[in-house]
Amino acid sequence: MDLWLIWLIAAGVLAVAEIFTLTAALGMLGAAALVTAGFAAVGLPVPLQFLVFTVLAAVSLFFVRPIAVRHLLKPQAERFGVDALVGKAAYVVSEVSGLGGRVRIGGEEWTARAYDETLVIPPGTTVDVIEISGATAVVYPRE
Predict the structure, then answer these.
(1) Which DSSP symbol is given to 2?
(2) pLDDT tens across 86-128, in order?
(3) What does residue 77 show for φ and ψ, rounded to 5 degrees?
(4) Which of 8, 14, 74, 89 could hold 37 in an S-S bridge, CB 3.0 to 4.6 Å?
(5) Which letter does DSSP use for residue 121 in this model?
């Protein structure tokens, strides 16, 4: 069996293993094996094939993989649903206290309660949404 075919099979096995592990390490090794298969196909001697594989694997594992992992673990930039309401301004429709009330957030009415239970916020006041607890907005008045 030709050496380039062995490198190609190794690249395929590593690629399949990467699909199941999702570590990005086996994928980098598979890519190094694939490139080495190309060098083996043009007749590079065996010791140089191992050198090519080692250099490509080391470079990809130490330099390319950290960049790929950083992009995969990037936090979500946009907030959706009720998470997007936190930090928004709201308009008090009916008096808000620690027990309840109503506010308008972006055109929708929400039940609300004050962040501080001793606080009473009169209608017409602009407040900030601190958190959403179930279907209730927890608010604090702007000063």
Answers:
(1) -
(2) 999 999 999 999 999 999 998 899 999 999 888 999 999 999 9
(3) -80, -35
(4) 8
(5) B
Question: How far apart, in whole angstroms, are the C-alpha atoms of residue 143 and residue 141?
Answer: 6
Statement: residue 74 has pLDDT above 90: no
In sequence order, what are the beta bridge partners of 114?
139
Q: Tokens in use for 54?
A: 């080692």
Percent of the chain clearing pLDDT 70 (strictly above): 99
CB of 83 closer than 8 Å to CB of 67:
no
pLDDT tier at 42, thresholds 50, 70, 90: very high
Q: What are the start and end residues of each CATH 2.40.50.140 domain in the chain? A: 81-141
Where is average pLDDT lowest: 38-42, 77-81, 138-142? 77-81
85 exposure class (CB count in 10 Å sphere: 0-12, 13-18, 19+): middle
Closest among 127, 106, 104, 105 to 114, alpha carbons compared: 127
The answer to whether 8 and 37 are in contact (CB under 8 A) is: yes
CATH number for the domain whose boundaries are 81-141: 2.40.50.140
